[in-house]
Amino acid sequence: MVFNVILFAAFFLASNFVADATIGINWGRHTAQRLVPATVVDLLLQNKVPEARIYTSQEDILKAFVGSGINLTLTIFNIQNIAGIDLARKWVQEKAQYFEFANIRRVYLGSHVFRVGLTDKPFLHMAIDTLETLQYAINEAGYGDQIKVTFPHTESVLNDNLTRPSDAEFNEAIKEEMARTLRILKQNNAPFVVEVFPIADVAYHSYDPEFAFIDNKSPFVIRDINNTIYTNVFEFIHDCFVWALIKAGVPDMEIIVGQVGWPTDGFPGANASTAERFFKGLLPYVASNKGTPMRPGAPIHSYVHALTDENKMPYYYPFARHWGIYRSNGEPKYKIDLTGQGRDIYPTKAKGIMHMPERWCVFNENTTDTQKVKKKFDEACTRADCTSLAMGGSCSQLTFAQNMSYAFNMYFQANFQDEEACSFEGLGKVVTADPSVGGCVFPVEVVRGEQEGDVAAEGSRLYQMPSYGIFVVLVSMLWALFYD
Ligand SMILES: *[C@@H]1O[C@H](CO)[C@@H](O)[C@H](O)[C@H]1NC(C)=O
Ligand SMILES: *[C@@H]1O[C@H](CO)[C@@H](O)[C@H](O)[C@H]1NC(C)=O
Ligand SMILES: *[C@@H]1O[C@H](CO)[C@@H](O)[C@H](O)[C@H]1NC(C)=O
Ligand SMILES: *[C@@H]1O[C@H](CO)[C@@H](O)[C@H](O)[C@H]1NC(C)=O
Ligand SMILES: *[C@@H]1O[C@H](CO)[C@@H](O)[C@H](O)[C@H]1NC(C)=O
Ligand SMILES: *[C@@H]1O[C@H](CO)[C@@H](O)[C@H](O)[C@H]1NC(C)=O
């Protein structure tokens, strides 16, 4: 028996996980101030990042990666657009020229189709059919060894009463569909992709916040069978999935961590110094190929989330807009060694980014009509990003008037400093003295970059958010993480 286990482990390592773990990065473009693709490719090369995931399969973006040597993961959100073999073949035909020259390795389908599938089975079935046909079309075109189609997953696909990894199994409601998906992945030697957001994962489970960091300082640990000990939430969640895969009959399926990040604002404990600490623990751990208690020595390919902030829509939770390592002006927020060597360095700053002039829009305080002021505040925050005002955020300590100014300025900057965007029916004025308050930065944005592209293509604009209120913030923060 022991012999069998050892034999199995040796086989498992030798057959599946020969390469070293890769540290990639995710780059999304749901933001008004976007870095241009060529700048991003340059940034990745400067920082020696070998792989990237993009949230599109749009041609102008793929073009920028041609010849860079960076391996790419694409995302197709609108699954119905490639449903059925004809559309799948058409997609493959259109993208084929990039398969080689832009080093495409994986295609992720949908946002979290199994989360949606918990309540919408027809959609989930369509998504799985599409996974199968798209991979078929790719195989048919001769790229099956190179390109794998898969779904990203969050913890919501597991049973929700788990207290240790060995409790984990796939959620009863989607077990059958998961079994079918795993069969398709296994046939094609495709990986299982999971997403881990430690700061919110520990909050969700009510674990000690220290358990989010991978530097062995957490007094709280989780013990599992066979004397395994978990000192951080990253290994804990990884091994929950290992157990679920074992129980589903695919114990040797590769697991990739498709998103792992740490926001710098919009959540208690989210700031640049905690983000720095988090990655200082995580990246050398990943690069060490140390593995986890359930898969010792197995490399875990991991994708840092994310390159830049995005004012992601639809609006669910404040910290979602602060995942970026870089601010929109191309400056790094904190030290991070993306090569995993744990060096105390800032990543290279993006080149050629131009700022708008030093102008801000503030509340002129010449009214006593509070109702009107609040109305304008809501209008501004419905269209621009006010998430730093949220509880635990960097601007959560402002006065009422400062709150108004913050909102007005975010709206003004999001509109590239159009004076009209600072009118607010006579309540706003443009100033040239920086109104920032302590650690709460009133940003000046960068000049309008490339605006064409996937934001519109994915059907997303700066559209309506729910009226800004603390209850939305609190309830939706955790809810959205696991159920979106
Ligand atoms: C890209 O992926 C291929 C195949 O997995 C691998 O051989 C190659 O080393 C990767 N390139 C980089 C730059 O990591
Ligand atoms: C979790 O709940 C499921 C279904 O109710 C049950 O079968 C399973 O034993 C429970 N697991 C634990 C660890 O309590
Ligand atoms: C736990 O250890 C026993 C004895 O070494 C072994 O038979 C069993 O497979 C182990 N279980 C796991 C999940 O590793
Ligand atoms: C960042 O968050 C940590 C944890 O809440 C806190 O101890 C620290 O003071 C914060 N740092 C800054 C610069 O706000
Ligand atoms: C500022 O706005 C935030 C977010 O809407 C709110 O939570 C806070 O109470 C406001 N502060 C004041 C002083 O009105
Ligand atoms: C408030 O002051 C600005 C000048 O700063 C002026 O243009 C505007 O008309 C005033 N609004 C009201 C309601 O008095």
TrEMBL record:
Keywords: Disulfide bond, Glycosidase, Hydrolase, Membrane, Signal, Transmembrane, Transmembrane helix. Its EC number is 3.2.1.39. It is an enzyme of class 3 (hydrolase). GO terms for molecular function: glucan endo-1,3-beta-D-glucosidase activity. The keyword Methyltransferase does not apply. It comes from the Eukaryota. Pfam families: Glyco_hydro_17, X8. Residues 359-442 form the X8 domain. GO terms for biological process: carbohydrate metabolic process. SMART domains: X8. This is Glucan endo-1,3-beta-D-glucosidase.
